[in-house]
């Protein structure tokens, strides 16, 4: 199937992907309307969409740019609180959907600004040093929110309109994936990847590495802010403790398991690791143990040399079978 897909022209690939995307949305809506998927699982699917936006955007900086960042939850928090404050206090007179979209965009823009503020002084840093700086940023944001009474402080921010929908989140998922894919396939995207491969060589060839680092950071921060806004308007309550280091690490784990620099892998990992804890609620006392074992197995499956060789053998076997069917 993958071989047949690769043979298609770019236009046909886009049309096929668009058709499958629309078909999946229609299928979910039909299942929801007839009661096969209840309200609880629709909420889980909305959380899946939010995590997909977060993980795909994080993959731009961590996977494609090659910079380890641990402050993605901080950008999510900035977007969440900004959009929640606007929709609760300044945009109440507008229709619900318009108010929500404006609040989300504003939340994304404010998160983008914070992304630029964090990125500018850290452009020359990389590796552990960058991770420490971004980790500190996330903790600073969390502690500011804990002490900011205008948005509830430590007691939380309540009364946020709960008007996030599966449809709107689905649209933002498509926009995030489409723009991320377009960025990576563009000239700017190739420059971003060159920074990951060899920053010194990229600079020597005339690439302004600082410019493309900044581009990747603000791009990721903007969509993290959008995801934060969707989260705020889905839950209706915001608490600073949600946006601690654990959240950033959880998102980073999804990126690693999906594959660094793999957008489709990020989508699958975000979906799997959001749904898996819910499926394990029936064995709550063993849930964390099973979840941890699954993560360990997935890491071995992805990176162990023997398992990689086994996957390649299976893949080549199916390719040969597919080729023999086509020849017959």
Tertiary shape:
globular
The largest sheet, given as strand count, sense and whether it forms a barrel, is: none
Please count the beta strands (DSSP E, at least 2 residues each). Answer: 0
User: What class, by secondary structure content?
Assistant: mainly alpha
The secondary-structure element order is HHHHHHHHHHHHHH
User: What's the alpha carbon Rg, rounded to whole Å?
Assistant: 21 Å
Please name the defining characteristics of this protein.
328 residues; mainly alpha; 77% helix; globular
Q: What do these coordinates show?
A:
This protein is globular. The model has no long low-confidence stretch (mean pLDDT 84). It is mainly alpha-helical. The chain has helices spanning 2-7, 10-33, 39-64, 72-89, 96-119, 128-146, 166-185, 187-197, 199-204, 209-235, 245-258, 263-279, 287-303, 305-327.
Question: What topology emerges from the helices and strands here?
Answer:
Blueprint: H1 2-7, H2 10-33, H3 39-64, H4 72-89, H5 96-119, H6 128-146, H7 166-185, H8 187-197, H9 199-204, H10 209-235, H11 245-258, H12 263-279, H13 287-303, H14 305-327
Helix pairs in contact: 3-7, 3-10, 3-11, 3-12, 4-5, 4-6, 4-10, 5-10, 7-8, 8-10, 11-12
């Amino acid at each position: 199937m993958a071989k047949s897909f690769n043979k298609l022209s770019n236009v046909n690939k886009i049309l096929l992907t668009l058709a499958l995307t629309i078909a999946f949305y229609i299928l979910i809506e039909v299942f929801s309307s007839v009661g096969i998927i209840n309200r609880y699982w629709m909420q889980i699917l909305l959380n899946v969409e939010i995590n997909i936006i977060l993980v795909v955007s994080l993959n731009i900086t961590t996977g494609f740019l090659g910079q380890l960042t641990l402050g993605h939850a901080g950008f999510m928090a900035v977007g969440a609180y900004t959009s929640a404050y606007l929709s609760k206090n300044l945009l109440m007179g507008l229709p619900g959907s318009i108010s929500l979209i404006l609040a989300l965009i504003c939340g994304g823009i404010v998160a983008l600004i914070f992304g630029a503020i964090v990125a500018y002084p850290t452009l020359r840093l990389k590796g552990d040093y960058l991770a420490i700086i971004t980790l500190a940023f996330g903790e600073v944001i969390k502690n500011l929110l804990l002490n900011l009474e205008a948005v509830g402080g430590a007691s939380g921010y309540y009364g946020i309109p709960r008007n996030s929908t599966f449809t709107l989140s689905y649209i933002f998922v498509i926009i995030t994936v489409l723009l991320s894919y377009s960025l990576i396939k563009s000239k700017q995207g190739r420059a971003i990847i060159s920074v990951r491969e060899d920053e010194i060589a990229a600079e020597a060839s005339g690439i302004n590495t600082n410019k493309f680092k900044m581009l990747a950071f603000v791009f990721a921060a903007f969509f993290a802010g959008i995801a934060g806004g969707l989260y705020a308007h889905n839950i209706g309550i915001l608490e600073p403790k949600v946006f601690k280091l654990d959240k950033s690490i959880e998102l980073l784990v999804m990126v690693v398991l999906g594959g660094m620099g793999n957008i489709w892998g990020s989508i699958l990992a975000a979906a799997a690791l959001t749904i898996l804890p819910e499926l394990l609620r029936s064995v709550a006392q063993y849930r964390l143990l099973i979840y941890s074992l699954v993560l360990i197995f997935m890491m071995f499956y992805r990176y162990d040399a023997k398992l990689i060789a086994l996957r390649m053998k299976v893949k080549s076997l199916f390719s040969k079978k597919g080729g023999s069917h086509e020849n017959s």
